[in-house]
Amino acid sequence: MMDLLAFLLCIVAFAALALAMERHQQAFFAAPLPLSRTRLLRAAGWLGLVLALWVVVAHRGWALGLVHYSGQTSVAAGLVYGALILRERRRAARR
């Protein structure tokens, strides 16, 4: 259960970090977000990743926790990246 929580935190954190980038803001919102909102998304993303690390290490210990965290961040980043690609392709097909 804790691994699932950490995995979901990683997905949300990477999504926040992606939306903090101007390119993805253009794709999702058709305009860049204000600087304050961008900074908030970036801070929330990093905080989410640190929180996920804390959850996994508290549950599994440092040795195995870091291994699980590494795997979860890799898969979560891949899923978010794939979702961004899918979103761009669907948007391009509508044009």
Would you write up a description of this structure?
This protein is mainly α and 95 residues long. It has one domain. Helices cover 89% and strands 0% of the residues. It is built from 4 helices and no strands. Helix 3 packs antiparallel against helix 4. The longest helix is centred in the last third of the chain and has 33 residues. The radius of gyration is 15 Å and the shape is elongated. The N and C termini lie far apart (42 Å). The mean pLDDT is 94.
Strand proportion: under 5%
* Overall form: elongated
Biggest β-sheet, characterized? none
Class inferred from helices and paired strands: mainly alpha
Provide the gyration radius in Å: 15 Å
What count of structural domains?
1
Mean pLDDT over the residues:
94
Give the helices and strands as they follow along the chain: HHHH
Total number of strands:
0
Share of helix, binned: over 70%
